[in-house]
Amino acid sequence: MDFNQNENTEALSQSNVTESTSENISQKSLYIADSGSEADTRSLPQAPDMMRSYKTDCYKLGFYLTSLLLLRIVAQGFSPIASRVIYSLTSNLDVIYALNLLYSALFLQIIPSFLGALMLKYSLKNVAGGFHVPKNSKKAFANFPAIYGAGMTINLITMGIILLVTGGGDINDSINSLGLAPPSIVSSVTLFIMLVVIAPLFEEFVFRGAVMNLLKPYGSGIAVFVSAFCFGIFHGNFQQFFYAFALGILLGYISYATDSMFCNTMLHAMFNSISGIIMIFASTDAVRKKSMDPNAVLTDGEQLILSFYAIFMIIVLLTALIGFIAMIKKLTKIKRYKLPKMWGEVGNGRKMAILIFTLPVLLFILLMTDVMGENYIADLIAKAVG
Questions:
Q1: Is the pLDDT of residue 13 over 70?
Q2: pTM value?
Q3: CB neighbourhood size of 164 (10 A)
Q4: Which pLDDT score is estimated for 41?
Q5: Which residues contact 96 (CB under 8 A, 6 or more apart)?
Q6: pLDDT tens digits, residue range 266-281?
Q7: Higher-pLDDT residue of 5, 93
Q8: What is the pLDDT of residues 132-182, one digit of tens each?
Q9: SS (H, E, C) the chain
Q10: Which of 22, 39, 306, 376 is the most buried (most CB within 10 A)?
Q11: Tens digit of pLDDT for each residue in 238-291?
């Protein structure tokens, strides 16, 4: 992605970075896009201090990620009780649908954001400060087709492999795998608010905000990679993991390039809006009838819906195709922009090894295999409280 970058740098003001005037400490600073003032340069701690700081932050990150997975597992385990409570309160399907979405958002996005602010010391004040519109926002948004093309390509490949492995299946079941199919227009609006406002805002705060911010001092590469990997994991299934992982890397790249969370959050909302529209169309009677029986007879209204759906999908596929070609071209030029390098004395391989073999991170990995697999723990909780 081709962003105009200034030559200025700006000081990294993390709690684990201290000032020093010692001559044997090398000066390293974090490159910030669109900096309009002269840079301050502060010294990083010596290697032993940096290593201690990194290990401490690995523990913080591990405890945080483990907490989020436990929160997710418990919420899933108690979901049958939550559903019974919701159904006891009202019989209105739209209200029931909205309350179920709120239950999911509370445990998957909202509470994790407050935990990130608390456990990773990423103040909620950063939301206001980090969402300024950067000078190079137009160039960031111009990359939408390329980013969407790359993500869609990965998503289609993943869906194709899953369908081959599972021996086929209803494509609508794949699209609606999260059980979000809205029962009415009112519920569709609720779903849209969830996908386009709540999810992007809170998820970007967690992954491109709190997680990346914690790892910034130790290298842009590891910060982008780890935050993107966690972003993929917290989608909770293999079908979405690879798409979300790739999207997380690209959104993290844009966040660095613009020194803001505005563009990556808006792009996230744009991606989700497309998914939301597809999900809404796929849940209509017209699309369901045709997907189950190509020869099904439709009413004039259903035929109109199917026509709009076909036009929309053609536009989406053309955008993805054009974007994929654009991404290939951009990959050949990506060396023009280099992410900031911090603490270069320690390689990324060693950093990843230290992170992976941190005790709370190992626990996170164990929980991750269950969440991405059979959800045994959540099922046990559901049976225990059911």
A1: no
A2: 0.79
A3: 9
A4: 37
A5: 86, 87, 90
A6: 999 999 999 888 878 8
A7: 93
A8: 788 888 888 988 888 888 888 888 888 888 778 766 544 444 433 445 667
A9: CCCCCCCCCECCCCCCCCCCCCCCCCECCECCCCCCCCCCCCECCCHHHHHHHHHHHHHHHHHHHHHHHHHHHHHHHCHHHHHHHHHHHCCCHHHHHHHHHHHHHHHHHHHHHHHHHHHCCCCCHHHHHHCCCCCCHHHHHCCHHHHHHHHHHHHHHHHHHHHHHHCCCCHHHHHCCCCCCCCCHHHHHHHHHHHHHHHHHHHHHHHHHHHHHHHHHHCHHHHHHHHHHHHHHCCCCHHHHHHHHHHHHHHHHHHHHHCCCHHHHHHHHHHHHHHHHHHHHHCCHHHHHHHHCCCCCCCHHHHHHHHHHHHHHHHHHHHHHHHHHHHHHHHCCHHHCCCCCCCCCCCHHHHHHHHHCCHHHHHHHHHHHHHCCCCHHHHHHHHHHC
A10: 306
A11: 878 998 999 999 999 898 888 888 999 999 999 999 988 887 887 788 887 887
What's the token pair of residue 70? 């436990």
Tokens of 321: 């195709």
